[in-house]
Amino acid sequence: MDIFLQQIINGLVLGSIYALVALGYTMVYGILGLINFAHGEVVMIGALVSYSVMMVLVPSGLPPVLLALISVLVAAPVCMALAWAIERYAYRPLRHAPKLTPLISAIGVSILLQNLAMMIWGRGYHAFPDILPAIHFDIGGAQITLLQTVTIGLAAATMGILAWMIQRTSLGQAMRATAENPAIAELMGIPVNRIITLTFIIGAALAALAGLMVGANYSVAHYYMGFMLGLKAFTAAVLGGIGNITGAMLGGLLLGLIESLGAGYIEDLTGGILGSHYQDIFAFLVLIGVLVFRPGGLMGERVSERA
Amino acid sequence: MNSVLLRADNISKSFGGVQALKDVSLTLNKGEVYGLIGPNGAGKTTFFNCLTGLYVPDSGQFTFGDTPLISHAPDKTVRQGIARTFQNIRLFANMTALENVMVGRHARLRSNIVSDILRTPFNRREEQATEDMALQLLHYVGISARAHDLAKHLSYGDQRRLEIARALATNPRLLCLDEPAAGMNANETAGLRQLIEAIRADGISILLIEHDVQLVMGLCDRIAVLDYGELICEDVPAIVQQHPRVIEAYLGSGAHA
Fold first, then answer.
1. Within a domain: residue A189?
2. Are the beta carbons of A184 and B90 separated by less than 8 Å?
3. Domain limits at A165?
4. Which of B136, B174, B224, B244 is least crowded, fewest Cβ atoms below 10 Å from its Cβ?
């Protein structure tokens, strides 16, 4: 089996998920200049709600694919409502406060959601049922499962639709105009508050999908999963250039690949001192590297600190 | 007999200890080009900002047509038919010229989020119509060749024109231009003047802040003069030019002696 190719495939799966989550960070940052640190928790809620829905429906004997579909159709609205509430009550009252204030509010929301989830779902790890039959295809000595194929395909399709929406529809135009200058956008008759709410809601829908994908691919969901995932996706957004939509997609994929290849080779590289469970090192090495050498990210313009 | 389009009643606004506007009352008739002039810091832009909802006046009321304007709701003001440009150009720099104009159309779109996502036939037709209209407007202001260039890549004069096209896209009854000729050379100013006259001929009233005296005197039907936040004179150009307080405000009291 070809380790390199295999890790590329694994990296693409991981990267697709990172990209979906990173989009939520980057869209909100693009419009509000706010890092929504509660976004990882929205993914976690998405995963746990999906899990619960599936568990409730398993006895009905419905095909697993249908279970997954129903669960995401429930989880997405839950996450969207949650994101609406977070924006409305935790961020909007602080819209004109110093930048640090909403950031602290975001961390507060994040802790609150973790604890709520712990109260509802408990401290344990929840194992997702198998959504798709365990079929796999061989390509060049590596294997890709049906689930992985679907994950990558679905993420790509979702991102394609999002990119098209932002570039081509009047809604997307309104979002870009708001991101560039909210005051002027409002003068042009764009309901800026509604656009901001919508941005959060779209990000949350992507987060719900990502939550289901994490659960399905890695078979676990628990109340604390949003923390690390959120940090990684944030890293991906920074890597791509925070605020830049294409950058978030690219950053997510790249980070997934870096992590996956890193995990595959770290044992060889360190002579067996560090094992593959040290894979988290890579994401944060990337974060530090980007912040030091290219703070604007790969696709970002050179940002000057706005006073 | 002209009918009144905009009435300002006793508009006041102060910032800290500075009284930027003191009981300013004026009326603008339908179809007029109405000049608002005054030395720097006289309160002209503050008046614009109050009118377009960026500032809340401390007291006073604007009436537009028959309806009072809601203060501090720029998106509603624009829906009621008042559009503006800015002294320092404020385009969406990273969007194309065409997109800038299409954004201006937003206030008039009937599509909503749901139809946007579902791509209803109505939504598609409306989007196509918006694009056609935006192209026409670019043609109207004379920059259709630059439609697909990013706004930030346009020349200064073209950016000014683009701002006017974007404002026109909101389908205003009153167009407020804040120093549109600032930084323009004589040629560009002449072109701007033709454009403003064309807009008036199309039945849109214009409120114009401008420092170029020749342009103002030649173009405006009536002129209001502000000095230290107070309206000192409102009349036709010929009379405004002769008004002693206007001469004093512009040239200092010594000039009169």
1. yes
2. yes
3. 3-293
4. B244
* B104 vs A: CB within 8 A: yes
Q: Is residue A301 part of a domain?
A: no
On whether both B135 and B102 belong to a single domain, the answer is: yes
The answer to whether A176 contacts B104, with C-beta atoms less than 8 Å apart, is: no
Whether B202 and B238 map to the same domain: the answer is yes
pLDDT at B87: 84
- DSSP state letter for B31: T
CATH of the domain at B232: 3.40.50.300
- Partner residue facing B52 (CB), from A165, A170, A187: A187
Question: Do B217 and B240 have their domain in common?
Answer: yes
**Tens of pLDDT along B28-79?**
999 999 999 988 888 899 999 999 888 889 999 999 988 888 767 788 888 8
Total residues found in chain B within this entry: 257
> Number of structural domains, chain A?
1
Nearest to A189 among B93, B95, B170 (CB): B170
Neighbours of A283 (CB within 10 A): 23
CATH code of the domain containing A81: 1.10.3470
Question: Chain-wide mean pLDDT for chain B?
Answer: 87
Cα gap B56→B132, rounded to integer Å = 36
Residue B162 placed within a domain: no
Interface contact B198, partner A, CB < 8 A: no
Shortest Cα distance, chain B CAs vs residue A299, angstroms: 14
Q: Give the pLDDT score at A227.
A: 93
A188–B107 C-beta distance less than 8 A: yes
Do B53 and B179 lie in a common domain? yes
Name the residue range of residue B51's domain: 4-81+172-256
Q: Indicate if B67 and B179 belong to the same structural domain.
A: yes
Statement: residue A103 has pLDDT above 70 = yes
CA distance B231 to B236: 15
Q: What are the residue ranges of helices labelled H in B111-243?
A: 113-118, 121-141, 156-169, 186-201, 213-219, 237-242
- ipTM surpasses cut 0.95: no
B114 near A CB under 8 A: no
Tally of domains in chain B: 2
Residue B109: list chain A partners with CB under 8 A: 170
- pLDDT of the residue at A175: 92
In a domain? residue B227? yes
User: Is residue B220 located within the same domain as residue B240?
Assistant: yes
Give the minimum alpha-carbon distance from B80 to chain A in angstroms, rounded to a whole number: 10
Q: Tell me how far apart the alpha carbons of residues A21 and A298 are, in angstroms, rounded to a whole number.
A: 18
Per-residue model confidence as pLDDT tens digits over B110-163: 666 666 667 778 878 888 888 999 999 999 999 999 999 999 999 988 999 999
Segment A53-84, tens digit of pLDDT = 999 998 888 888 898 899 999 999 999 999 99
Kindly write down the DSSP assignment for every residue of A251-299, as one continuous string. HHHHHHHHHHHHHHHHHHHTTTSS-GGGTHHHHHHHHHHHHHH-TT-SS
Q: How far is A301 from chain B (nearest CA, A)?
A: 11
Quickly state the pLDDT bin for B2 (edges 50, 70, 90).
low
